[in-house]
Specification:
Mean pLDDT: 78
Radius of gyration: 21 Å
Number of domains: 1
Helix content: 55-70%
Number of helices: 10
Distance between the termini: 41 Å
Low-confidence stretches: 227-241
Largest sheet: 2 strands, antiparallel
Shape: elongated
């Protein structure tokens, strides 16, 4: 919690300083073909490998998340931990969906945010917005609502609608902002710290894959990475696209 507070404080300070000296007239969102050779503009060499890697991380993250939620007070999650189990899952799935009484922060903020994170995985891999909406819906409905969460709670009408619908809207905004930052060499308002911090907040899974280098461990490469090669005149640089 202390680390999050410190990071938020630093981000806010950097953002405030940057906004004071920023001319917004130069904002533009270039297309992918305009970014040939820009190593900050990440284009995976394999859409399937990228999505497979991000889906694996997403699955592990959801399992960790359900564990954390399970350990939280029932007054926060509205879960009855005593009924956790496969029998409860069968009962919940049979009578679902139902209207939940979760607060605004869960239904109106948390679920759309995670829907946006789901959406970002295929979108950053190179899939279309329609395919990304479908991925967000399938992940939120079948993996989370009718999957993991159904062990402790009846799948919710609000979550089935808000998560993929609002999440996809926010997800496309996140995607465009991420591409804008990447097209500006990782900078936002002239600050690389702001750029990477916002990217990490909008797409934490993709940040780990792209910017922390996990993707390379699984054979996912950036087509725009410069490739150094020996030549008779010394070292030359080229890129794959």
């Amino acid at each position: 919690m202390l680390i999050i507070c410190v990071a938020t404080s630093l981000f806010s300070t950097q953002l405030e300083d940057a906004l004071k000296h920023r001319d917004f007239s130069g904002w533009h969102f270039p297309s992918q073909k305009d970014q040939l050779g820009n190593p900050y503009y990440y284009v995976p060499d394999s859409k399937g490998k990228y999505l497979g890697t991000s889906a694996g991380l997403l699955g592990m993250g959801l399992l960790v998340g359900i564990t954390g939620l399970y350990l939280m007070p029932e007054s926060v999650t509205n879960w009855d931990r005593e009924r956790f189990g496969f029998r409860s899952w069968l009962q919940d799935v049979k009578i679902a969906p139902a209207v939940d009484d979760d607060n605004f922060w869960l239904n109106g903020v948390a679920h759309p945010y995670f829907g946006a994170v789901y959406y970002m995985q295929p979108r950053m891999a190179g899939y279309s917005w329609a395919e990304s909406v479908l991925f967000s819906f399938v992940t939120s409905a079948f993996f989370w609502e009718y999957g993991i969460e159904a062990f402790v709670e009846i799948p919710s009408w609000q979550d089935l609608i808000y998560t993929p619908a609002m999440g996809s809207i926010f997800g496309e905004i996140f995607y465009q902002l991420t591409r804008y930052i990447q097209s500006n060499h990782g900078q936002l308002f002239g600050s690389r710290f702001l750029g990477y911090t916002l990217i990490a907040l909008m797409d934490p899974i993709g940040f780990v894959i792209r910017d922390l280098g996990l993707g390379k461990l699984f054979g996912v490469k950036n087509k725009n990475d410069f490739q150094a090669s020996a030549s008779p005149l010394g070292v030359s640089f080229s890129y794959r696209f």
